[in-house]
Design goal:
CATH architecture: 3-Layer(aba) Sandwich
CATH topology: Rossmann fold
Low-confidence stretches: none
Strand content: 15-25%
Radius of gyration: 18 Å
Largest sheet: 8 strands, mixed
Shape: globular
CATH class: Alpha Beta
Oligomer: single chain
Helix content: 40-55%
Number of strands: 8
Number of domains: 1
Number of helices: 11
Mean pLDDT: 96
CATH superfamily: Alpha/Beta hydrolase fold, catalytic domain
Structural class: alpha/beta
Length: about 290
């Protein structure tokens, strides 16, 4: 683990594998921590010859918090109004690029999941020279015509998070079950163990509304994605209730030459049974860029 000053804040990060290997930056989703990228999945990428960097986004995990900024008016933003927000998606993209710079990495493969996919897309839009390849996982373009989440999944975005450890873990297990996809492959014991580990590392969740505000404020990226020229892979689960797979299809359609791979039975999560398939697609994709 390391910590570095980037873009006026501090980011907590971890480098896995040989630091001289082909760099691959992992960007995680809404309110999540770097450890939400499963160790086993990361190891598959390391074994394929990548130096894997994962980090806590601002306002999450062990990176800088914006608690003093208070809660944004999400309702005003969602209905087309204006509201003050402490940072933007462009700021979060600059965090990613700044971390690469702090690690003396000129170019990297950029892989993002959910909100992380939106940040990765924004990196490709505004910082293309730093991007070898782009991979967007279970994410979307911000187009208001995108398929909506199920009501149950949408409710997870704004539900109160209990501060008590046991209650938070129970809530995490219930949320994970809803987002998982194929219910027969849901490993409750493993999910419960991971939820406890993440809570003990950082129980902070107050950044979620501010990250949501940055998503809403940015709006539709499709017009800008049309100019993205870096090789792009879009991965999406067929059973995603939060960001339906139609969002992945729209992402692939928005970027010239993008390749779409739908993962059968996968929901809005990264369970063990999809690690191999996801890694295989990413390794094949990153292999097209040698410099």
């Amino acid at each position: 683990m390391g910590r570095t000053a980037v873009n006026g804040i501090e980011l907590e990060y971890e480098v896995l594998g040989d630091q001289g290997a082909d760099p691959l930056l992992l960007i995680m989703g809404l309110g999540e921590q770097l450890v939400t990228w499963p160790d086993e999945f990361c190891q598959l990428l390391v074994d394929a010859g990548h130096c894997v960097i994962r980090y806590d986004n601002r306002d999450a995990g062990l990176s800088t918090k914006f608690h003093e900024a208070g809660m944004p008016d999400l309702q005003a933003l969602a209905t087309g109004g204006d509201a003050d927000i402490p940072y933007t998606m462009e700021d979060m993209a600059q965090d990613a690029v700044g971390l690469l710079g702090a690690l003396s990495i000129e170019r990297a493969h950029i892989v993002g999941a959910s909100l992380g996919g939106m940040i990765a897309q924004t990196v490709a839009i505004h910082h293309a020279p730093q991007v070898k390849t782009l991979t967007s996982i279970m994410s979307a373009t911000g187009n208001p015509q995108s398929p909506p989440p199920t009501p149950e999944a949408a409710a997870l975005l704004t539900m109160p998070r209990p501060p008590q450890r046991d209650a938070r873990i129970e809530q995490s297990v219930k949320s994970a079950r809803l987002l998982h996809g194929d219910p027969e492959l849901f490993d409750e014991a493993q999910v419960r163990e991971r939820a406890a580990f993440k809570y003990d590392r950082s129980s902070y969740t107050a950044g979620v509304p501010r990250q949501l505000a940055a998503i809403i404020k940015q709006g539709n990226r499709e017009p800008l994605l049309a100019d993205v020229a870096v090789p792009t892979l879009v991965l999406h689960g067929t059973e995603d209730p939060l960001v339906p797979h139609g969002c992945g299809e729209m992402t692939a359609a928005a970027i010239t030459g993008a390749r779409l791979e739908l993962i059968e039975g996968m929901g809005h999560s990264l369970p063990a049974h999809v690690h191999g398939e996801l890694a295989r697609h990413i390794i094949e994709h990153t292999g097209i860029a040698t410099g």
